[in-house]
Amino acid sequence: MTMNGAECLLKTLIANGVRVCFMNPGTSEMQFVSALDRVAGMRGVLCLFEGVCAGAADGYSRMTGTPAATLLHLGPGLANGLANFHNARKARSGVVNIVGDHATHHSSYDAPLTADVEAFARTVSGWVQTVSSAAEMGVATAAAVAAARLPPGQVATLIVPADFSWNPAGATGDVRQRQARSVVDCDRLTEAARILRAGQQAGLLLSGSALTDRGLAAAARIEASTGARVFANRYAARLPSGGGRFAPKRVPYFPEQAEAMLAGLEHIVLVETQPPVSFFGYPQRRSTMAPEECRFHVLANIEEDGEAAVEALAELCGTAAAPAREEPRKHPALPRGAELTADTLGAAVAALLPDDAIVSDEMVSCGEVVSAHLRSAARHDHLPVTGGSIGQGLPVALGAAIACPGRKVVALEADGSGMYTLQALWTMARERLDVMTVIFANRRYRILDIEMERTGAGAVGPRANEMLDIGRPDLDWVKLAEAQGVEARRAATADEFIAAFEDGMRQTGPRLIEAVLK
Amino acid sequence: MTMNGAECLLKTLIANGVRVCFMNPGTSEMQFVSALDRVAGMRGVLCLFEGVCAGAADGYSRMTGTPAATLLHLGPGLANGLANFHNARKARSGVVNIVGDHATHHSSYDAPLTADVEAFARTVSGWVQTVSSAAEMGVATAAAVAAARLPPGQVATLIVPADFSWNPAGATGDVRQRQARSVVDCDRLTEAARILRAGQQAGLLLSGSALTDRGLAAAARIEASTGARVFANRYAARLPSGGGRFAPKRVPYFPEQAEAMLAGLEHIVLVETQPPVSFFGYPQRRSTMAPEECRFHVLANIEEDGEAAVEALAELCGTAAAPAREEPRKHPALPRGAELTADTLGAAVAALLPDDAIVSDEMVSCGEVVSAHLRSAARHDHLPVTGGSIGQGLPVALGAAIACPGRKVVALEADGSGMYTLQALWTMARERLDVMTVIFANRRYRILDIEMERTGAGAVGPRANEMLDIGRPDLDWVKLAEAQGVEARRAATADEFIAAFEDGMRQTGPRLIEAVLK
Question: Of A169, A229, A413, A417, which one has the fewest beta carbons inside 10 Å?
Fold first, then answer.
């Protein structure tokens, strides 16, 4: 029997290593859904909103280094995924984003769902292609997988008219050659080593694939032997942390703090990152955060092998004999009897986090305080905000949990941001994922209190206040979670939080704590 | 004191009749938020997700014929609104969509939130402009309002770099001339009248501004005098219904049913609509639904005055003496003692709907059955699906309630679609809006069972079934509502539903019923 286009698509994905598909299909994607029963090897994960699909694929890619697929319904279904695809793009996550479209014979009729799917796709995708025939399905799908994997990784959108799914297909496609990260050339290595050893004030700023155990160990040796300060891009996709690992300094969100951290630097060597810039622009402030006279030196571009470059750099810096510096592991104390604040919550999480956990971080205004505690926690992978589009944290946690069964995932989530993609909780329940969600319930878009002042807009008046206050009425996160099948508790003191979090760490499965902050 | 750009923007909106702004602001929009306390006359309505803002603006425009504003945060904030802006576009709703962007001095630095805002905007907007300086803020804002109001109405997106909000502005802007709908020319009227009176099988298909009390009354006279059959575009923004009003036939969703309704027609006169086409394309089916030999005659284009055209047509058809046909008002019976099905639910709503209610309809698979009952309900405005992007119903109800205080709004909402923009419930609670939400809880993307078959994908296998089933775990809509401050009840029998719905109709304020369907 001839296979149809949808079967060919699915087989090509599977044959090329794409084994999970986060989806919210509609009529145009029914052939793909139907093919799940005839083609073995794809895990279909239903999400109740496309923003969850997109963020989950991002989280999956960050943890595995390989792309997941998403399956979305026409232009509007894709539209709902764009904000988290924006975050995935900034995380340089590979995603094979499959979007069904109207059958070609139907596309000229301006039916209700007709829209320019490619235009939606181009806003966030590094690669966009509309399949041109059922016969080409295999080739086009393989091209999409190859594009998603192209270093450093990108969203590759393949648009599939419905008739090409139900028509007889040609052969499946093959990704012939997997493009590897390119090797950093010798001149740049030599130059970077020269700068770091020259005795001037120098920094090494890491991002992307350099932020691995090996990359960090090499960076620690460089710091020990040259005195250069090592920094991490705050918005990197993934940062191995805790457990006594070497901890590069994360460049802060606010420019004044970042400038203080970077003060005095004459040179910064860049690994898979641009120079540090402010998150927002403000009146009478420049956007760059390093000293104005600081010079930048690119060691590795974003598509190059930053990890190998940092290791080679460590060799060149003559660190063979230098002892790797390890941060001492202090077992953090539990803040018993305390009020529940970002500070005590952070201390409790740091004390109780099990080994090898994954932390999805969308804490927004509580981030600095909690992250400082997490440096002394057990070893974990930290998945921070990358693109700043809120609603990232829960979907990324979901995707990480699918990617890494057996590892505890902790989602540290602001209440305002959490409301954007709260449907992720349902999929966590359905798939019985081992995710502990902590909602930082401060009942406010708290960060905007600060930003209001910073942008020169002055004090918050009563009408402005209404636009920052999400506490009238209060959101009940226990009910929001239970409504979607996730067991939940509320904690209003540090002791209540400790008890609930300890419980959650002892058991597996999805749970949520609404942490009502003082 | 000089006003800044944000104050100028706000004053220009208000001076030109834009008095409500649905918003989810961020740092780049703080000046606008701050200005709400200094410039009187704008109602700011906070929504916890941008899809809610966009849909609410759509609902507001459908009920008032004038645009509301939306205020969104950079490319990703806009991205979250696109799906409901797609629906607004198909509804031809006017919306002044204000999107903050990075300060111009910051835009070249590729900060995390940097994206091509215009590219996002163009996918759904009829008009897009980035403000070029603070001095031009008034002129640009007035141009956006004029564009949003241009018949038949469109999404006009004004992108505002943050520095132009805090810098000193020029004068406020004025919409000098409000563009009216153009008048239909005599030749087309004469031709339409000739066709309808020629004794052939003829139809009159209405949409847009022709679907008013006056337009419908004129259509009823035309039907009575000429025998022409009168139809309504199923996806029109608003249909006055019930209360004995003349009820045009709504062209069904499925092409077989639509073809049966349109069978035999030799001519169709089009008023603000294209010929009827199928929602989706299917294998071996054509996309058009009128008979192949049917000829189409445009009476009014979408930007023309369809209401006046239909009234003029009624005169030309010589209907002065013809009695207007009125549908008899049958008071529907309450289905006491019955199981709760789409049919009994529809009968109960039709029996209990108060006069002058507004019905936001996103019932999806239950739509045909319930709508049939609603024809015999008290007079109401029916706001159907327009663009097919799910997640429309609750936000449109919210916007309609803001637009029409004193009128009961009933949102008839599928469970799968409702999950897309459930955050609308919170704003209904905060604003104490008189909205009764009925969730049709069938625990399934039911429509896809049918579409699976129709697209030739065959029977639903167990793995495919997982992608259509949203009942593992069941969503608890009572908790989802209560969590957001909306009083809620569950109904599992017709009697329980009747009691809950009657209660809701007697009181004002937001309420929700989870109708668990058999």
Answer: A229
* Stretch 433-452 of chain B: residues touching chain A, C-beta under 8 Å: 447-448, 451-452
Identify the DSSP state of B328. -
Please list every residue in chain B whose beta carbon sits closer than 8 Å to the beta carbon of residue A452: 30, 33-34
CB under 8 Å to B337, separation ≥6 — which residues? B494, B495
Considering only CA atoms, give the Rg of chain A: 24
Cα A282 to chain centroid distance, Å, stands at 26
Residue numbers in B near A83 (CB within 8 A) = 76-77, 79-80
The verdict on a CB contact (< 8 Å) between A461 and B112 is no
For residue A33, which residues of chain B lie inside 8 Å, CB to CB? 448, 452, 457, 464, 467-468
CA distance readout (Å), B189 to B271, B272, B315: 11, 14, 10
pLDDT 10s digits, A435-489: 999 999 999 999 999 999 899 888 899 999 999 999 999 999 999 999 999 999 9
pLDDT digits (tens, 9 = 90+) for B280-304: 999 999 999 999 999 999 999 999 9
What is each CA distance from B165 to A286, A367, B101, B430, in whole angstroms?
Answer: 18, 28, 10, 28
Q: How far is residue B416's CA from residue A77's CA, in Å, rounded to a whole number?
A: 13
- Which amino acid does the sequence have at A210? A
B457's tokens: 């994908």
Q: Return d(Cα A88, Cα A152) in angstroms, integer.
A: 12
How many beta carbons lie within 10 A of that of residue A333, not counting itself? 10
Q: 3-state secondary structure string, A452-518?
A: HHHCCCCCCCHHHHHHHECCCCCCCHHHHHHCCCCEEEEECEHHHHHHHHHHHHHCCCCEEEEEECC
The residue with tokens 């974990």 is: A380
Q: Is the CB of residue A266 less than 8 Å from the CB of residue A294?
A: yes
